[in-house]
Specification:
By secondary structure, the protein is an alpha/beta fold. It has ten helices and eight strands. The N and C termini lie far apart (about 40 Å).
Length: about 240
């Protein structure tokens, strides 16, 4: 009974993260970036898993219409298959960063496999921050792999606002949860790989709700400029 309740609690937290949970993660893993501590009304809008030929053009169209710049954590395999989409992302002024070669969980990889995946992705496209900004596939990484990443100049970015859109909850929930959880300095994690139509459908609502709260969605690089010393607190 207790195990079942605990499992339900973990599942619930994967769809909605209270502030105390993010604060605890920051204390436990100070070398990882969950959010940026700033009073400026900015949140970073980030997309994982692309580029995808069915989804990426739709997302780019929405972002153009809304005049929003974002950060795309791309996979090396997708970038190699669709270089024209990477060029479109960059030409629109967005930031690209490293999400490893494919969606294989970083936690399951040996240090050598992890390094190979990251390095291959860094060489898959020209431009952006593929050699300096990294979000491990599945979000978590072994300490040995994290040490390798830091030694090689990577900033490991996890994020702080996540509606678990890979499990395809209703678009209305994605929009509500993202806006409800977001505060200045947060890093929003969305997925726009193949089959993520619900996330795309939720995107206009996400942007509108964030702006209604007085929050401006920006690139991760712009948010970091508000406090470049993150992830550690400065007060």
């Amino acid at each position: 009974m207790c195990a079942g309740i605990g499992a339900l609690g973990i599942i619930a937290l994967s769809f909605y993260q209270p502030r105390w949970l993010i604060a605890a993660a920051e204390r436990g893993f100070p070398e990882l970036l969950f959010r940026v501590h700033t009073d400026r009304p900015l949140v970073a809008l980030t997309f994982d898993d692309g580029p995808d030929p069915a989804v990426t053009p739709r997302v780019l169209e929405i972002l153009r219409r809304e005049r929003v710049l974002a950060t795309w954590f791309i996979t090396g395999s997708a970038a190699t298959e669709h270089p024209e989409l990477v060029r479109s992302i960059l030409s629109d002024g967005h930031q690209i960063a490293n999400h490893m070669w494919d969606r294989t969980s970083a936690w399951t990889l040996s240090p050598r496999e992890f390094a190979t995946s990251v390095n291959a992705t860094a060489g898959a496209a020209a431009g952006g921050d593929l050699r300096t900004v990294l979000r491990p596939a599945s979000g978590w990484v072994r300490p040995s792999a994290a040490s390798w990443a830091r030694r090689n100049g990577y900033r490991i970015v996890i994020g702080s606002v996540y509606a678990n859109d890979p499990l395809k909850p209703p678009s209305s929930y994605i929009g509500w949860a993202i806006s409800r959880m977001s505060s200045p300095g947060d890093i929003v994690v969305l997925h726009v790989g193949a089959g993520r139509e619900r996330t795309v459908n939720a995107l206009p609502e996400i942007i509108a709700r964030l702006r209604a709260k007085g929050l401006d969605p920006v690139r991760l690089s712009d948010l970091l400029a508000a406090n470049p010393t993150s992830p550690r607190r400065t007060n």
